[in-house]
Amino acid sequence: MIFPKGLKIGDTIGIIAPSSPFSKYNLEEIEIGFKDLGYKVKFGRSLRRRYKGYLSGEDKIRAKDIEDMFLDKEVSGIICIRGGYGTPRILDMIDYDIIRSNPKFFVGFSDITALHVAFNQKANLATIHGVMAGSVLEWDSFTYKSLLDSINMNHKLEISNPRNEKIITISNGICEGKLIGGNLSLLVSTIGSKYEVNTRGKIIFIEEVGESIYKIDRMLTQLGLAGKFDDCEGIIFGDFCDCKKDDENEFTIEEILKDRVEKYNKPCIYNLKSGHCMPMITIPFGVKCKLDASNQTVQFFK
Fold first, then answer.
1. Exactly one of 56, 76, 207, 233 is catalytic; which is it?
2. Domains along the chain?
3. In the prediction, which pLDDT does 295 show?
4. How is the chain classified by DSSP, letter by letter?
């Protein structure tokens, strides 16, 4: 696995919109936010476009934005501005040799999951499941430090939840393996394609936002039927923001997670605060991970 160089004050960060368009803040505000942290930015073409309402530009523009940022010698690393939807549409349009030959840190989550899996498996690049550029004006000190810790990881990194957020053990045990995964909906959407996540010998991380309990049930069941939990060494469930019961008789989130994976008898934890939450933990994908589910600890090693 290729581990990109880290980030230092004064570096230029490439910002792209490979999924949906961004409108919460204007780009000048985003640039000022990064400038205040000590960085320069370069915006991709996709940030100033909108296509068919829910895409930030035509597919070819969003795919080329990714390639151009990896090729740009002035850019030290890349942070996606937001998720939404769109990355599965461009997976077949990206030249993965460009990614492999020009390694840089690549950050995002949610819909960016499809790119994480593709870059890990097609370009052998370790990537970063972390906070989006579009929320830079809202980053707290915990979130920003976690981002830097992951990007600049040296030989070892141990992550822990924000204060008063408890990690819950679903199944006891200790395991090791490279960490891979991301958003549950995106992981399920690529099953059956050449971009589906390979969990063999790995630890799988899963987060989700705004889905009903029965949909969580259905998607976890699909991952199970596809052999992803049989193949993996362990399971880390992250944040499940706004995934609530529609009826008082339904499973809670913790109950449905336990119901769907406990039978695999793999070390498993829930509520690692990475996903659609703030503060947010940033975690590296494609990096060796040690999960001690019994003691609720997660460590990474290069």
1. 207
2. 12-139 (3.40.50.10740), 157-301 (3.50.30.60)
3. 98
4. -B------TT-EEEEE-SSS---SS-HHHHHHHHHHHT-EEEE-GGGG--BTTTBSS-HHHHHHHHHHHHH-TTEEEEEES--SS-HHHHGGG--HHHHHHS--EEEE-GGGHHHHHHHHHHS-B-EEE---GGGGGG--HHHHHHHHHHHT--SEEEE-PPTT---EEEE--EEEEEEEEEEHHHHHHTTTSTTS---TTSEEEEEEES--HHHHHHHHHHHHHTTHHHH-SEEEEEEEET---SSTTSPPHHHHHHHHHGGG---EEE--S-SS-SS---EEESSEEEEETTTTEEEEE-
In the annotation, is 160 catalytic?
no
The two most distant CA atoms of the chain are separated, in Å, by: 56
Closest CA to 217 of 182, 265, 251, 168: 251
Backbone angles phi, psi at 259, to 5 degrees: -60, -40
Which two tokens mark 80? 């996606």
How many other β-carbons are positioned within 10 Å of the β-carbon of residue 265?
11
Active site residue 110: yes
Question: How does pLDDT run across 179-232, given as a tens digit for each residue?
Answer: 999 999 999 999 999 999 999 999 999 999 999 999 999 999 999 999 999 999
Q: What residue has token string 């406990």?
A: 262
Pair type for strands 105-108 and 127-129: parallel
207 catalytic residue (yes or no): yes
Convert the pLDDT of each residue in 67-94 to its tens digit.
999 999 999 999 999 999 999 999 999 9
Model confidence pTM above 0.90: yes
Q: Which of 31, 129, 211, 276 is catalytic?
A: 276
User: Out of 20, 46, 76, 110, which one is annotated catalytic?
Assistant: 110
Cα(270)–Cα(257) distance, integer angstroms: 8
